[in-house]
Request: fold
Amino acid sequence: MIKYVFFDLDETLFDFPTSERLAISEVLVKFGISPTESTVKRYSEINRYCWDLLELGRITKGELLEKRFVILFSELCVNVSPSDAQAVYENALGSHHPLIHGARELLSELYGKYSIYAVTNGTAIVQDRRIRDSGLHKYFDGVFISERLGYAKPDVRFFEAAFANIKDFDKKLAIIVGDSLRSDILGGKNAGIRTCHYNPVGRANETDIMPDYEIKKLSELPGLLKEL
Ligand SMILES: [Mg+2]
Reply:
C-alpha cells in the first residue's frame, strides 16, 4: 500500500526544457546576444553539466547558478556579469511553467487518495512561483525544496528533513517518482523508500542505480500505485 507520493518537479511534472529555452532566450536578448538555436542548446548542455557536478557533490548550488553563465559567456567571448545574468534568468524561469503532458490530470486523479509532496533541487524562489502560477500548489500537501532544507537530493538528509515535516510518516508507505536516476532514484533508495523512474523516452540506464519501478507515461502511475 502507498500513502505518500513524492514527486520530483523538473522533467517529471514541469516541462523544464521548454521553460529553460524561453528563459535563456530572454537572458541572451537582455544582454544583446542573439538567442540562436545553437547558443540556447549550448547553454542547456552547460547547465546539465553543472547540475551533474552538483549531484556528484563537486560544486555547491550557489556555484552552479553562476558557473553555467561564466562558461557560456566565456565561450561566447562576451563580458556579462554572471550574477546579473542569473538574476534575469531566475525571474524569467519563474515566469514560465509549462507542464509535462498529463501532469495536471495525474495530480488531480491522485488528489485525495494519497498525500502528495513535491521534492525538488530547484531554486526556491523559482519553484515557489511556478508551483503557484501553474495552479499545482492545490494538489500538494507539502513542497520540499533543497535550498530551504539545506541538503539536496540524493542526500539522505534532504529526505530525512522532509519526512520530519510529515506527521506519522511511514517510509514503508512512501514512493518517489522522478526522472533522474542519480538524484531521485538514488535519493529514494538512500532514504529507504520505494522508487519509480519516470523515463518517457526509454533512455538506457547507464548507472548501477536500479529503480523499483519504471513508467513511460505519467498516466501509468495511478494503476501502479493501486497495485503496491
Ligand atoms: Mg527532474
In short: Residues 181 and 206 are 9 Å apart (CA to CA).
